[in-house]
């Protein structure tokens, strides 16, 4: 792999993704890894990421000069560039002059990394210190007003560095620079793609599982669906999927799993109809946290029962449980096998002690967009592959007030109209998600047809986001909003008002509960 050494900024994941977008497999490693640790992974190349420190700060992450003696091509980015310069005897100065944001650089010699670059270009900078003198043997490739040495390389030793962030889209030629490093600098071939991932994971799953039986909880979301499809491709009829229909899904979603997904992948699916059970458990409850806890608890119980049932009625031992854990979870929980297992176990809420499974996590090296590509490769229906995020507790937390069967029907009817119109307008991939929320305990006066009505409002909550940690409300076109509003109030008799949520996150969360 190409190893991306994480110096503690948020950029390492982005770098790893960009490398994979260049069709080269990459992995993130913490900066605390020793040179021996890094070399043990047999890296094809190493990228040192940016980070928040100054190389002068006490305790600043340090780069062992031995790394540059190993014959592995290295690219230093921002902090990684400065750390490389410092480790090899260059001069890094604390100038106090920050460069932040779009910055002009002059390319004095294109070299390898900047090959194909115009003489001046705009790049994204974010740094305080600057490299004033390149280490011996390095050629200076670019300068900016705040960085006398803004890029350098030593072609013989295959060591390269840039002061700016090529991984962010604000550096328009950044991807080109990364690809120059990977293809020309490190001599790598761009041959990593979804097809290879499938082939490789199928091999791994077969090796792990052998002839044992496997179960998987399907939620209808992208991750569990693609994970199940991969395991199905690997071990076929050894897999049984469990789909808990808690009645809190949106219109058409249960059918999509029960029919389309099964037809496309051939998985054996056990559907547990738990709709009544969830409604009973939720009856009388209005507090958001209580509702969430009830849904979580019931979900675990139903899943446990189903799992136990499969275990008891199976001729072979059921040893494995499939989880749709993704790479960001693995990285964020420390990257270690053990740490990630503890976390992912919580994804199914922690199964009881008498049900001990080993985890199968075929997506744990992948980012979300890669999971989608793998899903398409496996023939998972597009409606599932491109599904926007949907919370586990489902519509239960989009009915403000008590959850009842009637209210679920009202919300489903309104929600499906909003989704249809957003899809028709071609906006699905522009928005992150658009919850539709029923204010079930609020009523307002309206006039519909010839009569006065006293109905409920629904809220449209379209948001744009990168990761759901922060979000902005999406400026949907007025004509699309108008069609959604007209259709909902015409077609859903209990609703006489449609309102738009224009709150960013923070302060508002995406969901209302
Ligand atoms: P909030 O409302 O916290 O939501 O801004 C952030 C993102 O997380 C989703 N969400 C959940 N997803 N289980 C999930 O799997 C949950 O309990 C849950 N609650 C919120 C929400 O839809 C948004 O994408």
Automatic annotation (TrEMBL):
PROSITE patterns: GATASE_TYPE_1, GMPS_ATP_PPASE
EC numbers on record: 6.3.5.2
Keyword ATP-binding belongs to the record: yes
Top class in the EC scheme: ligase
Molecular-function annotations in GO: GMP synthase (glutamine-hydrolyzing) activity
Transmembrane segments: none
UniProt domain GMPS ATP-PPase: residue ranges: 192-387
Pathway: Purine metabolism; GMP biosynthesis; GMP from XMP (L-Gln route): step 1/1
Keywords in alphabetical order: ATP-binding, Glutamine amidotransferase, GMP biosynthesis, Ligase, Nucleotide-binding, Purine biosynthesis
Family annotation (InterPro entries): Class_I_gatase-like, GATASE, GMP_synth_C, GMP_synth_GATase, GMP_synthase, GMPS_ATP_PPase_dom, NAD/GMP_synthase, Rossmann-like_a/b/a_fold
Active site as annotated: 78, 165, 167
CDD domains: GATase1_GMP_Synthase, GMP_synthase_C
Catalytic activity: XMP + L-glutamine + ATP + H2O = GMP + L-glutamate + AMP + diphosphate + 2 H(+)
Residues annotated for ATP binding in this entry: 219-225
Superkingdom of the source species: Bacteria
Assembly: Homodimer.
Cited function: Catalyzes the synthesis of GMP from XMP.
Full protein name: GMP synthase [glutamine-hydrolyzing]
């Amino acid at each position: 792999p190409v190893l991306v050494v994480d110096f503690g900024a948020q950029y390492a994941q982005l770098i790893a993704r960009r490398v994979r977008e260049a069709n080269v497999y990459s992995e993130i490693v913490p900066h605390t890894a020793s040179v021996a640790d890094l070399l043990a992974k047999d890296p094809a190349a190493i990228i040192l990421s940016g980070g928040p420190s100054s190389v002068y700060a006490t305790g600043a992450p340090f780069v062992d000069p031995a790394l540059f003696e190993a014959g592995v091509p290295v690219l230093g980015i921002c902090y990684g560039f400065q750390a490389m310069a410092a480790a090899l005897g260059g001069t890094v100065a604390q100038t106090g002059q920050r460069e932040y944001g779009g910055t002009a650089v002059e390319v004095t010699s294109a070299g390898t990394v900047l090959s194909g670059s115009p003489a001046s270009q705009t790049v994204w900078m974010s740094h305080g210190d600057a490299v004033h003198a390149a280490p011996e043997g390095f050629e200076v490739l670019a300068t900016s007003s705040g960085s006398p040495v803004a890029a350098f390389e030593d072609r013989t030793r295959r060591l390269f560095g840039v002061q700016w962030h090529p991984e962010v889209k604000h550096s328009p030629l950044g991807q080109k620079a990364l690809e120059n490093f990977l293809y020309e600098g490190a001599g790598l071939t761009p041959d990593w793609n979804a097809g290879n991932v499938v082939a490789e994971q199928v091999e791994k799953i077969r090796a792990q599982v052998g002839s044992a039986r496997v179960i998987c909880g399907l939620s209808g979301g992208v991750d569990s669906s693609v994970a199940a499809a991969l395991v199905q491709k690997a071990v076929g009829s050894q897999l049984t999927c469990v789909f808990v229909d808690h009645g809190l899904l949106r219109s058409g979603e249960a059918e999509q799993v029960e029919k389309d997904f099964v037809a496309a992948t051939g998985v054996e699916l056990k559907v547990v109809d738990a709709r009544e059970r969830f409604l009973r458990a939720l009856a009388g409850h209005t507090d958001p946290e209580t509702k969430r806890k009830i849904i979580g608890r019931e979900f675990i119980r139903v899943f446990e029962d189903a799992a136990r049932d499969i275990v008891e009625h199976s001729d072979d031992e059921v040893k494995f449980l499939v989880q749709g854990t993704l790479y960001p979870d693995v990285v964020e929980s420390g990257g270690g096998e053990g740490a990630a297992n503890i976390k992912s176990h919580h994804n199914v809420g922690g199964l009881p002690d008498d049900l001990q499974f080993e985890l199968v996590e075929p997506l744990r090296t992948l980012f979300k967009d890669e999971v989608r590509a793998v899903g398409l490769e496996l023939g998972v229906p597009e409606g599932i592959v491109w599904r926007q995020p949907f919370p586990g507790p489902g519509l239960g937390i989009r009915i403000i007030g008590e959850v009842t069967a009637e209210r679920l029907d009202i919300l489903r009817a309104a929600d499906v109209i909003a989704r249809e119109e957003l899809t028709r307008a071609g906006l699905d991939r522009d928005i992150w998600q658009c919850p539709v929320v029923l204010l079930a305990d609020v009523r307002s006066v309206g006039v519909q047809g010839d009569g006065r009505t006293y109905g409920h409002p629904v809220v449209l909550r379209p948001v744009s986001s990168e990761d759901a940690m922060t979000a902005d409300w999406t400026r949907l076109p007025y004509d699309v909003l108008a069609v959604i509003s007209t259709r909902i109030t015409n077609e859903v008799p209990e609703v006489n008002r449609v309102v738009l949520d224009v709150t960013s996150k923070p302060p508002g969360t995406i969901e209302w509960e």
